Amino acid sequence: MSPEVGTILGLTTQKIASGFGADGAAFAAGTAGLLAMVLSLSAKEYDRAADIRCAENNDLRALFAALAPGVRDAALKAKLEDAAAAKDASLRISALNESNYALRRLLTALQIDAEDNGARDAERRIWAVLKAMADRRLVQLGP
Amino acid sequence: MSELSQKLQAYLRTKLAAPDLAVSGLARIPGGASRETYRFRAHYDGSERGLILRRDPPASLIETERAAEYRAYEAFHGLGLPVPAPVVLELDAAPLERPFFIMEEIENCQTGSIMSPDPYGPHRDSVGRQFYTVLGRIAAVDPRDVGLGDFEGETDIHNVAMHEVARWEKVVEEDEREPQPIARAAIRWLKRNPPPPAQKISVVHGDYRTGNFLFDDGGTIRAILDWEMSHLGDPLEDLGWAIDPLWAGGNAAFPGGMIARAEAIRIWEETSGLKADPEALQWWEIFASLKGAAIWISAACEYAEGRNIDPINAFSGWFCLSFHNKVLADRLAALS
Predict the structure, then answer these.
(1) Total CB pairs under 8 A between chain A and B
(2) C-alpha to C-alpha distance for B310 and A20, rounded to whole angstroms
(3) Which among A4, A130, A139 is the nearest to B329, CB-wise?
(4) I want to staple A27 with a disulfide (CB 3.0 to 4.6 A). Which of A96, B28, B135, B278 is the partner?
């Protein structure tokens, strides 16, 4: 999730410290309201960030393990098999992001391969994972 | 009096040949990450006038051409549509540090919030009918008739859709800070499944939606705002954007929190004289969600890299992008 929580906390601190009242009361009130909302969302994201990334990485590795045997491109197949066999060694968000970004890039390569080869079943399975990713990452505004 | 107010007053005294002109009440209006917007009063020639200053920010969310925006205000105000009268355009950065333009303030009005489940209350139906009627009227205009024949955009009805896809693909390419598999898949789908040719080339507002127009207490739409992304293109682009579920808290049946989708399309067709072919409209609706995703990816980038730390950019990068990713994933999974 870009920007990450750490970036938001740092830039929010900077925004508050630099003052935002010079442009008038209405603008300051609007900015304060937005800052409050962003901080509230950051609190939720802090709680779920590692869980989202772990679940997504697991889903992607399982998908790669399932679809790699049907991939004809040898180089792509090898990458999928390597990725499917890997594990996350750390639960730090930065480490999980690093593996997640690599897995997401590989997912796009796999999807292009499926589209180019008319592998409809593979396409459907990829979309099921993408749907699950979108559902999991959806930001809820309510409590 | 603030420094900006003093500079504005000095500028207007010269520009309007009104040596006694006085500026008062300059105050920034919340919202809008692509322009800084201020309201102020100008006192001159024995009268008082409410005006709006739109100034380029230090870094813009989407690079837009303020001269084009100003020309769009001129053209559609001149046609008698509810569009504020433009007053002055200044491309020289010297007077106020950045380029800007000034237009009349439409007073005693409000906007609808995309966060509200019922942004128009008792005026929902009336506002909705006006909203799609005005959009149909914009679509019906021949750009050459209002001096916008040379506007930015594609003028070949066969290429206009791919021109827009390329434009937003470039934004994703330049601004994604992490892989975006859903946006990338949407771009490929849009390229592989082109829509029918445009029925005509129109001026596309580019951001025609709930939140970007003013209505008064009687439920009359008084001003269509934020023409900064206006360009030449397929008029279905605006319709697809206007009915995107983001503008109604996800309620696709009543887009924008106004009238039912079917009635909205019927009014647009009747007013524009065009057809909203279901296949073409579906393509433009998917395009709208991709365009939204590209804008939010750009917002997140501007924020995270410290060029524009307005918190609206962080909010857009999180909430709006996650929303449009879900819309795209649901729609494209159903089509796969």
Answers:
(1) 123
(2) 10
(3) A130
(4) B28
